[in-house]
Amino acid sequence: MTTATLPVYTKKDFQTDQEIRWCPGCGDYAILSAVQMVFADLGIPREKFVIISGIGCSSRFPYYVNTFGFHTIHGRAPAVATGLKIVRPDLEVWVATGDGDSLSIGGNHTIHMLRRNVGLKVLLFNNKIYGLTKGQYSPTSEVGKKTKSTPFGTTDRPFNPISLAIGSEATFVARSVDVFQTHLKDTLNSHTRQNKSPFQTHHGLPSPCQRVQQGRGGGGSVGGGYLDARGIHRKTHESLFHDRDRGPFGRGNELPCIRILLGVIIVVS
Predict the structure, then answer these.
(1) pLDDT interval class at 1 (50, 70, 90)
(2) Could you say which of 3.40.50.920, 1.20.970.10, 3.40.250.10, 3.40.50.970 is the CATH number of the domain covering 11-218+257-268?
(3) Fewer CB within a 10 Å sphere, N or C end of the chain?
(4) Do residues 224 and 235 make contact, with C-beta atoms less than 8 angstroms apart?
(5) How confident is the model at residue 167 (pLDDT cuts 50, 70, 90)?
(6) Average pLDDT, the chain
(7) CA angle 105–64–94, rounded 5-degree value
(8) Which has the closest alpha carbon to 158: 114, 120, 115, 207?
(9) For residues 199 and 117, what is the distance between their CA atoms, to the nearest angstrom?
(10) Residue 232: phi, psi to the nearest 5?
């Protein structure tokens, strides 16, 4: 009887030679780094991973991870990923999407993906704006947000993807933040090792788009701290979580609306 040997990978094995085309300081860099490290730690053969994406900044993910991938069309990544997982249940199928891609044009696909529980893992990057398409408001934009499509402020109440996932009967829900790399990687590992694969989404905490909401693409002040071009916080965690007007963690236990912060919700379907 022979014992199968798990492959040994490093983060570098999941990096590609493609130029990463996100704005300097964007939290997407930190999420990409965490995913690459988690993939390396899982011991799953690299050819078993597939990343399916829709349209948006987050949907460039397949180009930046050295696995199989498919850049599909707006809002339809859940449908394509569901079909692939049904035909090839042995694959680790991940979906990379954004708040507009998955909750607006792809909203119906998202809820049915969740309720079917076929075993997908979804990364939903929520910046509460249509960042790639020049700054229209999205389904998670806060009430009153002024954008190019809502010059007098939005009147819609924002979607809560956590409530949506729970209501669709996902089996695992968790939340993390891009700047907390240890917690983010631990959470990714936890949901990936579940008996049923998770739906994973990024939402819940303010994450302004650098280019659209801050008016420029460079790094800058983050609640008294600083995020460099790779999205790494360069000051203290205390400055990141304190706002003089709202106090620690802002109103309602949410983080203050500071730059380049990506919240992460992890849901197992």
Answers:
(1) low
(2) 3.40.50.970
(3) N
(4) yes
(5) confident
(6) 74
(7) 50
(8) 207
(9) 9
(10) -95, 125
Count Cβ atoms within 10 A of the Cβ of residue 39 and give its class: 0-12 exposed, 13-18 middle, 19 or more buried: buried
Q: Around 79, how many Cα atoms within 13 Å sit in the side-chain half-sphere?
A: 12
Length of the chain measured in residues:
269
Query: What is d(CA 183, CA 168) in angstroms, rounded to the nearest whole number?
Result: 26
Q: DSSP characters for the chain?
A: --PPPPP---GGGG--SSPP-S-TT-THHHHHHHHHHHHHHHT--GGGEEEEE-SSSGGGHHHHSSSEEEE--TT-HHHHHHHHHHH-TTSEEEEEEEHHHHHTTTHHHHHHHHHHT---EEEEE--SSBTTTTSB--TTPPTT---SS-TT---SPPP-HHHHHHHTT-SEEEEEETT-HHHHHHHHHHHHTSSSPEEEE--SS----HHHHSSSSS-EEETTEEE-TT--B-S-HHHHTEETTTEET-GGGPPP--TT--EEEEEE-
For residues 127-143, average pLDDT = 81
- Whether this model's pTM surpasses 0.70: yes
pLDDT higher at 35 or 184: 35
